Amino acid sequence: MRLLQAILILLTSLYCAPLMAQEGGETPVVVHGARTDGNDKTAEFILDVAKPVGFSVFALEGPYRLVIDLPDMTFQMEQGIGLVERAMVKNFRFGSFGHSGSRVVLDLSKPTKVVKAYTLPSVDDNPARLVIEMASVSKKEFAEQALRDVIRIRADGKRDTAPVAPSATVDKEADAVEDSRPLIVLDPGHGGIDTGAVSSSGAHESTIVLEFAKALRDVLVKEKHFRVLLTRDRDRFISLGGRVAFAREKKADLFLSIHADIVKEHYVRGATVYTLSDKASDAVAHTLAQQENRSDLIAGLEIEETDDVVADILIDLTRRETANHSALYSRTLVGALKSSVRLSKSPERSAGFRVLKAPDIPSVLLELGYLSNKEDRADLLSDSWRDKAIKSIVKSINKFFAKRSAQSSGLFLPRSG
Question: pTM for this structure?
C-alpha cells in the first residue's frame, strides 16, 4: 500500500504540475497573499491570486502536512505570514517545485481532511482566490484519505476527474554523444520550496550554493578536460532521490554535492568534506546528515522508509570500491582546499547522507562553510574567497582523475569486477 501511495505522489508531482502550468499560461500568475480562517476543528486556507489557476492538493503524515501543487507562480508575499500560521496550520512554506510548477506546504497540528477545494474569480475589488476547506479527523479517517485522495481542481473551479496523462517533457540537458571525457555532476543543495539554511542576515543557502556551482561549472568547462552537468541550474526543488537518479542516469564519474549549512555550535567554521557512512564520524556530522535528509519532507514528499537498492549492494564489491574512490577524492579535495581556504578542525567526516547513496559513483558532500558562523558567512558571500575555493576544487578534480587514469592503466590496483 505504501508503495502505491508513493507512486501516486510521484505521478502527481511529475505530471500534474506541468499540465497545470500549461493551463496557467507561459507568464507566471502572481500570488498576492495567503491566510487561514477558522479554528482547530474546521478551517479554510486561501490564496489570493491574480487569476484562477488549476491546482491539486493531497495530505501527508509523519508529520501531518497538506501539499498544494500549482503551476509556475510568482509569490509576492513574505514567508511565515502570521495570517496563515493559525487555527490548525502550524507553519507554511512555498516556492518553485520541479521544472514548471510551484508548491505550498502546510504543516498541520493534527490529522486533517480536505473537505472541499475550489477557485473563485475576482469580484469587484476582491482578488481571485484558491480555497481549500479542511476539517479535523481521527487518525484512522486520515489514513484512509491521505495520499490516495489527490484532489485536482481546474481553473474554472470544478474538480478534474480525468486521468492524468504522462508528460512528454524531456530533460533539456542531453547526454553527450561519444564523449569519453569524465562527467562531473555538481549538485547545488536545496532549491525552490526548500531554501535550506537561512542566515540571520537573510542569505539563503540554496542561492549561495547555486551561484557557486555555476561558477565552478564555468571554470571546469573552460578547461575542456571534463563534461559538467548540474542537478539544478535555477531555483527549483529536486528530491534527494532525484539528484542521485540524475547522476546515475547520466553515468557520472564524480558526484559533488555543495552545501552551506547552519549548526547550533556557532563556533564551528571552515570547509568540510563528507563521505557516506552508516555510522556518523561525530555528533556534528550526525546532526547535519539528519538535517539534510529532511529536505524531501520539507518539500512535501514522503520519506522512503527503506533503500533496498543501496541495502542490497552495500556488501557488493562495487559498493566497496565506490566507497574507496569517494574516500580518495575526499582526501584529495581536502588536500587541495587547505592551501587556499579555512578548513574545519576535522575536515574529513562521514555520515548517512541520502544524497551520497549512488552505489556506483564516487560521491562527496562539500560543506563550503557554515552560515551560522560570522567569519564563514563573510567568506561565502565574498567573490575573492569563492574564486580561491573554485581554483582548489578544480585542482582536486584534475588530480583525482589523474590518479584514476593511472589506476586504469595498471599503475594501481585494477578495478574489481
Answer: 0.72
